[in-house]
Specification:
The structure holds 2 protein chains of 2 kinds. Chain A is mainly α. Chain A has one domain. Helix content of chain A is 78%, strand content 0%. In chain A, helix 2 runs antiparallel to helix 3. Helix content of chain B is 81%, strand content 0%. Chain B is globular, with a radius of gyration of 20 Å. Chain B starts with a helix and ends with a helix. At the A-B interface, helix 1, helix 2 and helix 3 of A face helix 3, helix 5, helix 7 and helix 8 of B.
């Protein structure tokens, strides 16, 4: 069990890292893109905007205080 | 073609960064405590990695391409943003630079302090440290190769070739220099790799979600330029507040 937890923690830290809110923002942006596409909008522009906003917000949190 | 070049370059650079980190650990342990047990550790880690990839690889290759693009694109994006975020914080002076020479010195100091093996017994300290370093960094390389490669047909071969080329370059340079590759501009490399991972992740996740990019593959260049501008802007802005 200890090794399973350590293995999962390794992957969490490797992929998600210090700021889980970035991961949540990306999942939400992919969901929004899929929803807009299903309504007939070619929403390629959602992801680049969401990525920059998520990055800036994360940098702001990291440097605040 | 654009996508293949980007894919090779991204997998090569990302793999090289991880391999430099593994080489630092292996060199520190090998030089300080001897090479026999260290190389046993490296060999055992490579075998364990090969077994893991052989077990997981085929199941990934059989998944539907749209699902792979969303999952892999999302993973690459989250992973790439983490690199980019750290690279921006380092470049703007908000985080300490990654220093291979300092890591090498610390690893050597710890290796010297650990108890020495008696007679011809296997030095488990060297074995474990080398195994852990190569296995964990190798897992990261495997993740990069599989994620990069699986989102398009023939991609695994290109990404694996890029990782192989990176291994060759790092090993040859490591053998010649016989010291940590501290002159490799690792932070600059990580900035570039973070940008490439984020670009690919954005491209694939949007495509997997059903969107079509204007200009198709050429859009990769525009996305990269957009993120590069946004990142350099963030560095400038944070530098002013450092």
């Amino acid at each position: 069990m200890k090794y399973v937890v350590a293995f999962l923690r390794f992957w969490y830290e490797f992929v998600v890292g210090d700021d889980w809110r970035v991961a949540v923002s990306i999942v939400a942006a992919i969901g929004l893109t899929a929803a807009l596409v299903s309504w007939g909008v070619n929403a390629w522009w959602v992801m680049p905007i969401a990525v920059v906003l998520a990055l800036y917000a994360s940098l702001r949190r990291a440097t605040a205080g | 073609m654009t996508r293949d070049v980007f894919l090779f370059l991204s997998a090569f650079l990302a793999s090289a960064v991880e391999m430099v980190e593994a080489l630092t650990i292996v060199l520190a342990v090998g030089v300080t405590r001897g090479w026999r047990s260290t190389l046993f550790g490296v060999g055992a880690a490579l075998l364990a990695l090969a077994a893991l990839i052989a077990a997981l690889g085929p199941s990934i290759a059989n998944a539907p391409i749209k699902v792979l693009q969303v999952v892999v694109g999302g993973l690459l994006l989250v992973f790439g943003l983490q690199w980019l975020r750290k690279a921006i914080l380092r470049a703007s002076g908000h985080m300490a630079l990654h220093d291979e020479a300092a890591i090498y010195a610390r690893e050597r100091e710890e290796a010297e302090r650990a108890e020495a093996p008696s007679g011809s017994a296997v030095d488990w300290y060297s074995f474990t440290l080398a195994f852990k370093g190569v296995f964990l960094e190798g897992l990261e390389v495997a993740f990069i190769v599989i994620t990069f490669g699986s989102a398009r047909s023939g991609g695994i071969a290109i990404a694996a070739a890029a990782a192989g080329a990176a291994l060759l370059v790092v090993l040859v340079v490591g053998a010649v220099v016989h010291a940590p590759l501290s002159r490799v501009p690792e932070n600059t490399l990580k900035f570039g790799v973070g940008l490439l991972l984020t670009t690919f992740g954005t491209f694939w996740s949007a495509e997997g979600a059903g969107a079509s990019w204007p200009g198709q593959d050429v859009a990769l260049v525009a996305i990269l330029a957009f993120f590069a501008l946004a990142s350099f802007g963030a560095v400038r802005s944070l530098e002013a507040n450092a």
